[in-house]
Structure prediction request, 480 residues.
Amino acid sequence: MSAGSGRHVHFIAIGGTGMGSLAGLLKARGWTVTGSDTGLYPPMSTALEGWGIPVCEGFSPENFQLGGSAAPDLFVIGNAVRPDNPEARAAMESGVPYRSFSDALYELAMADKHPVVVTGTHGKTTTTNLTAHLLHATGRDPSLLVGGISLDFEGSFREGKGDHFVVEGDEYDTAFFDKTPKFLHYHPKTLILTSVEFDHADIYRDLDHVKSAFRELVATVPVDGTIVAAWGHDDVRDVVYGAPCRILRYALEPCEGTSWRASAVEADADGTRFELHVEGAEPLSVRTPFHGDFNVENTLAALAAVSSLGVPLEQAIAALPAARGVKRRQEVRGEESGVLVVDDFAHHPTAVRGSIGALRARHPERRLVAIFEPRTNTSRRRVFQDDYARAFDGADRVLVQEVSEEPIYSATGEVSELFSAGELCEALGARGVAADALPDVDAIVGAALAEARPGDLLLVMSNGGFGGIWEKLLEGLRSR
Prediction:
């Protein structure tokens, strides 16, 4: 299925980061692109508007006519769409070809490229973007699709003329009509595996179930391919064990079999410096603009990957300081009255702990107030109740939104126990961290503004729009 001017593709649930990015890529190729969704929020809502892609609010077969043609030439159905979605049902019964996002991406954009697929529970988006940045900065002109808005490429995709397509590979279901993980559809020649932890409790029963998906992915890498693996993580080693292809092992701490390692890690306000040890070579000094041990690991992964693709290591290291990263990853939203407001996508306990630690290293002099929305199918369950208490240890103050009683989707059985924001606050109090559970965004903003003082850092963590809390905080600070 080839792209071409005048062809019409319609995206059902266009607002996801992957769906919206592919929509933008096809629009740039000359397709007529339309879409539909509910509850769109920035940055994807503003990106779609900027690309000139009309989006209809809600789902209905009438949305097919947005492009002005009798019917689309192709439907792309997102993994957020349920089987009873009237628009999706009509699309599938129309006789027009339809694809999942993952299959459409591979068929229309990746099939003739070298797929560099970045996977893992944490760090996918940052590592995907950084790998593409290093390839681009060293003259390789890669293509990219990333699950966020890249500050380096001013969008979530780019189409290059080079050999490589760098893509973020997610372990989530492909679509309601295809329950395989999305990353199995990308056929990696180079695979980066940053971490393996339990997540997506709506579709995975437990950690072993998650690991089975990653094992299946590892088995797809051809013998002449390469796996870049975070060797300091037990579960990564477990799923990679026995892979027949080349394995490049990286770690922050010394670990048996590791060929890429960092030491002498030092952070300051502008980034992190470390010594890079590559097996068989002299140590090299590396400067990355990012903070946190997890970002040192992400940097190691990107350096190892591009080196395996033929980029001289010295060139890649020289390109690192210019990297800008991705929106909503320790993104400074603004500063008013001496109070810094930072936005982060963290929602899993490991990511929450890492983000707080990274901001601590970057701003050691500030009082850190962590504001958290448990929004995902996993964070709204009780499964990480105890882990969250430890994850917030580095904060001075914590404000948590209470979990709504709306039903939680689950393919693994009935959800009987919900996460308790109140219990988390009690546990944090016992650990010496002042914390309050509040019912909604306005209550959180009111509490934060009542206490905020010059020098504070307000770290907002959510994988959603969180009711526009960043703008409300900054506006409240301006009007005090």
User: Anything to note?
Assistant: The longest strand covers residues 260-268. The mean pLDDT is 91. The radius of gyration is 22 Å. The longest helix spans residues 293-308.
